[in-house]
Design a protein that fits this description.
This protein is mostly helical. The chain is built from nine helices and no strands. This is Cytochrome b reductase 1.
Length: about 280
């Protein structure tokens, strides 16, 4: 099935990938050139893993996981395969986020710096906890075939909203963290005097912001959502919830276009059943 506005989608996708990749590269240049490099010895070199892993996993990889269902080249792939890819990307992002937290706490403890006192740390830890819960919810409810369809239909809007909320929260937390680090680290010359490191890192923040905006735009366009699979809606004899609603679950943070009307289409189902019954009756006359 051809995608409506394919060229526009392709342009935005390439732009998002380019900006996201540049964000990772800028982060590496920042810590390697301006912040003396990387290490795992309780010094500032260990702390430097924090921004690298957060931007790589919690921003770039998470952003790709959000839009993976929108890629038209995957529409012929099975939904189970796409669920697995989506879950795998999110798992990698979660692991990198956890390691980044370990680096921060290890550095703070080695240097006798208090933990969890700033707004950045509060919001960041909250985002990680919510993200892990989101990942577990998606795995046990939407990926594994154990949860009843009624539970999936109930939790899907929450799952979609919380996924996008977490991604937006991560973007905001990263921007707070960059500013906080520059204020603490840049003393002579000061951050307010716009030294080269300050300008470079501010540019990194803008790249991350643009990447988030592109991901949100791609994922909220209804014409770019994954089409329903053939025979994805099977009607129960009692006119209950659609059996094929699971095809729209897929642990998808980005598939925000699954509206309540698509998940609760009993009226349309009954109407189709009545039409089929009438046609059957006429065929027997």
């Amino acid at each position: 099935m051809a995608m409506e506005g394919y060229r526009g989608f392709l342009a935005l996708l390439v732009s998002a990938l380019l900006v996201g990749f540049l964000s990772v590269i800028f982060t590496l240049i920042w810590v390697l050139h301006y912040r003396e490099g990387l290490g795992w010895d309780g010094t500032a070199l260990e702390f430097n893993w924090h921004p690298v892993l957060v931007v790589t996993g919690f921003v770039f990889i998470l952003g790709i996981a959000i839009i993976v269902y929108r890629l038209p080249w995957t529409w012929k792939c099975s939904k189970l395969l796409m669920k697995s890819i989506h879950a795998g990307l999110n798992t990698v992002a979660a692991i990198l986020a956890i390691i980044s937290l370990v680096a921060v706490f290890d550095f703070h403890n080695a240097k006798k710096i208090p933990n969890m006192y700033s707004l950045h740390s509060w919001v960041g830890l909250t985002a990680v906890i919510l993200y892990i819960l989101q990942l577990l919810l998606g795995f046990f409810v939407f990926l594994l075939p154990w949860a009843p369809l009624s539970l999936r239909a109930l939790l899907m809007p929450i799952h979609v909203y919380s996924g996008l909320f977490i991604f937006g929260t991560v973007i905001a937390t990263v921007l707070m963290g960059l500013t906080e680090k520059l204020i603490f680290a840049l003393k002579s010359p000061s951050y307010s005097s716009l030294p080269p490191e300050g300008v470079f890192t501010n540019t990194l923040g803008l790249l991350i912001l643009v990447f988030g905006a592109l991901i949100f735009w791609i994922v909220t366009r209804p014409q770019w959502k994954r089409p329903k699979e053939p025979n994805s809606v099977l009607l129960q004899p009692n006119g209950g919830a659609p059996e094929g609603v699971e095809s729209s679950m897929a642990m998808n943070f980005g598939n925000v276009d699954k509206s309540d009307s698509e998940l609760n289409n009993e009226a349309a189902a009954r109407k189709r059943n009545i039409t089929l019954d009438e046609a059957g009756q006429r065929s027997t006359i």
